[in-house]
Structure formats: structure tokens, C-alpha cells
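Internal QA ticket QA-208
Title: Verify multi-chain structure generation after dependency bump
Assignee: T.L.

Test input:
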Amino acid sequence: MIDREQVLHVARLARLNLTGEEVEQFSRSLGSILEYFEQIRHAPTEGVDATNVMARRHDALRNDIPVPSLKRDEILQNGPQIRENHFAVPKVIDG
Amino acid sequence: MDFETVIGLEIHAQLLTETKLFCGCRSRFGDPANTNGCPVCLGLPGALPVLNRRAVAMAIRMGCAIGCTVAGRSLFARKNYFYPDLPKGYQISQYDAPLCGKGELPIVVDNTVKTVGVTGIHLEEDAGKLIHDRAPESLFDVNRCGTPLIEIVSEPDLRSPAEAYAFLIGIKAILEYIEICDCIMEEGSLRCDANISLRSRGEKKLGAKTEIKNMNSFRGVEKALEYEARRQEEVLRNGGKIHQETFLWDRSANRSIPMRSKEDAHDYRYFPEPDLPPLTVNPEEVAALRKTLPELPAQRRQRFIEQMGLQENAAEVLTSSRKLADFFEATLATYHDARQVANWIVVDILRIINDLKITIDQLEITPGHLGALLKLIDNGTISARSARKIVDLMQERDQDPETIIKAEKMQQVSDSGALENIVQSVLAKNPVEVERFKAGDGKLISFFVGQAMKATMGSGNPKEINALLSKMLR
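Actual output:
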């Protein structure tokens, strides 16, 4: 279990509005995830990179050569609201 | 009580790559909105970032240029925050294992050299652009999202707004010299945030600091810091306390305004980026990149002082911009006197650039034309004073000085006083001929006229010269 305050803090960072019931639910489920990580923490990992799980590629870099982007319609197609070829989002500063 | 100002800077520079940091979309400024985007920079599920080799090389070159250690192995990290300019919900940055470690940059303030520590340089991606004033909503453009940035962090070694300005200008000069950033603060390709605190002189501990953002011009940084230092001093003198907060610089009002307090703004929950392997760089690669560095501002400044005999100030100003220093050397290829050239560039060319609010690229005056103008002063065609006017017209009309002098009849000969001087100097230079003329050799009058015409580049009035000669030789 993590406490109610922690759940609300994380929810606020993620801009999520949780109902009282959800706060209860997440304090349990996030708690059990953290407990699981606590177990993993005890695994013997001396000398192992944090990023060691990734498939090793011989060359992990890309040359600086442009490839075609998506078309604007495709870029914008998932936007909830479009205005003047832009994603319209809730106003974030006082204009 | 006497206060000491302590300033540290964070400078973000957009790298001049063709493509973004983690995908092949173009990273060009000014493209139509939302035309440079793909699953990676749009943060679509399942898309994987692949690091741009050239961006890494550029960051390493900057590290080499300011004496940073280059890490053989560095890591990327996720900086998590929710804001509409960041589709993924996190920015890929570097955190506790950046690409470049400690370095330093010498700055010159009041002709004194001071070495300022650099904490490190890391690579990160830029956020997208939000436009707040065009619609009831905020409008988001993904084009800038993922553009490669380096963040250069200074130690809190700066002790005045003037030093902070010098540091910023110094970093800018190097970025330009090594051609990895175009450094246009007004367009956001170079950005600067500052931390500033005050402490009583002699105190070792740092005072509570505030952060200033949004200073989008070089002088704006200095002004904003002066403003904030004054504000803090006033608070402290009145027995108040400085609260750690972030201010936005309002350039039009010349004051800083507190950012609407963003709760938990600094809770970024960094963790290692699982989609990118550690970046490994071997010493041979670093050595090879180091070899590609051009002559840097400090070296060029030294050369201008030692080999060309320039004053420190002039050398400093000229080398603060690679293009300005190039302009100086190009002019010097057409005209011999380095100090004279330096003086004209520092005073007049820069005056024109500042007055017209243009960049050196928009200058119509060419080095060759400036050299020609200086020669015209030397041979007496024009006075230094009218040359000042001509140089403005050279910019305005994109013409060479001779054309302007003809069109404007600006030769010194156009006023009879000046013409008299020329005739006088012709006579003074040819005493033997004067004697012969006085002894009766009347044909010599045409020789004198010829000499005077030559001195006026052929644009004097022969009748007037004749009249003056007759009068003066009488």
C-alpha cells in the first residue's frame, strides 16, 4: 500500500482526476507494483548496467539524413481538436 | 551591508543538424506547421528513438572547444512532465551521466581575464512549439519537437550581470566558430536561463536563489539579471527573505514577473531511458573530432593583438563573432592598415548593424568596398567625415563607394575650400615646377591642373582649378 497523499501527488503530476474509489484502488495496485520492484531490487545485479536488457546493436547511431515525415493530415489525424493546421489544446498560460 | 551577486547560467543551443535527435524528420526552423513529424517525435506507441550521430559529434566538438572531459560512456534519461508541448509526456535528456563533464571558459570583463567553470554539457531533445495568442485554445506545432539541443551549464562562478553577459557571448562565439548553432536568441535557437542569488560579501554559503527564464536577447539577459539583483538586494535590505521562485523576463516592460506557481514543477521523476542503449564514445573518435576544430575566438583574439597590433578591446569585439572577424580579415586583404580597418568595423559597421537591427549576413557593404573607401580617404578624394556618410549610403544602396561619391558629388573638391587645399598641396609637392612656372614656363599650368585632377580622382572642376592656380601662383 502507498498512502493516499502519494497517490494524489502522482495523479496531479499526471494531470489525472481520480475519484475517491480510484484513489483507494490505485493505492493498493501501485503499492503492490512497488512491492514487486522491492523484490527485484534484491536480485544480485552487481556489475550489470541499468540498461543491459536491451538487445545490443553493433551500431546504435543513425546518420543525419532526412527521411520523409508523415503528411500533415496524418500528423493531425489523432488530435482531438484541430485549428489552423495546429493541434488545439487547452490554454496553458494566460494569454 | 555589501552584497555579492552569484550567477549560474544554463544555455540551450539548437544544433544545426539536418534531422531531429531521435528520428529522421527535418529539424528546420520556419517550415509550415506540423509538417515535420513521425511516430517517434509524435510519441506514438511503439515508436523507438535512434540517436543522431552528427548531433553527438557536434556536442563532443563543443566539449573539446571548452576543455570538457568527454565521457566514454554516457546515459540518456527520461525527464517526465505533462505539458502540451511534449507529446510523449517526457523529454529524453541526460541526467547523472552526461556526455561532457567539467570544462571552463575564459571571459574578459573590463580588460581582465577570468576563468569560469563549466559543469558539463548534455544532449537533449527540444519540445514542440505552443502559440498562445492566436486562438481561444493554445495551438501546438510538432515541428520543433525532437530538435537536438545541447545544454551547457556554468558553475555559479559569475559575479555580476556583466560577467554573465560575457560568458553567454563567449559561448555564443564558440558555437558560431565551430558552426554547430546559429545562435539567434530572438528565434530561440539559443536560449538562456539564469540562477541568481545574493550573499553578503565574504560569506561562503550561497544565498537563496531565484531562476529567470525567457530572456530572449543577449542584452536582455544582462538587463534581467541587473533587475533581479536589485530586487533581491532591496528585499534583503528591508529584512525580507528571498523565496525560491521562477520569474519570466518581460522584455517590453523591462521587469520580471513571477511564473504562475507550477506545483511540483520540479518533480521530474528522472529514470534511465529504456529505449536507448548507453552512448559509448572512444578516445580516438574524440581526438579526431578535436582535430576538426577551427581557430577559436580566444586564439584569434590573441593573433589579432599580437600579429596585427590591434587594441585588446577591438580584438575582443571583432572576434566575438566569427563572421565579424572574417569580415575584418577579408577587408584587410584589400587594405593594409589593420588598426584603421578594425576601427571602421567596430565603430561604423557595427553602428549600422545595430541601428538597422540586422545581422552581418544582411550587410550590403562588402569587405572590398570598405577597403576601397579607406583608400579613397587616404588619397584625399574624400574626408573621413564624408566617408562616414558614404558608408551609410553603401549599405542603403548596395553600391561601391566610387559610384556613390560620383552620384552625390561628395568629393572634397565639391566645396571650393577643399579644392583650394588640393591645389595647395599639389603646389607644395612640386616646388621645382613652381619655380620653373614662376620663371616663365607657362605650359606648366596644364601639369598642375593634371596633378590636381588626379588628386580629385578626375572629378574636380578644371575651370575652378585653373582659376585657383592662377590666383595662387600669382
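Spot checks passed. DSSP finds 15 helices and 16 strands in chain B.
Status: verified.
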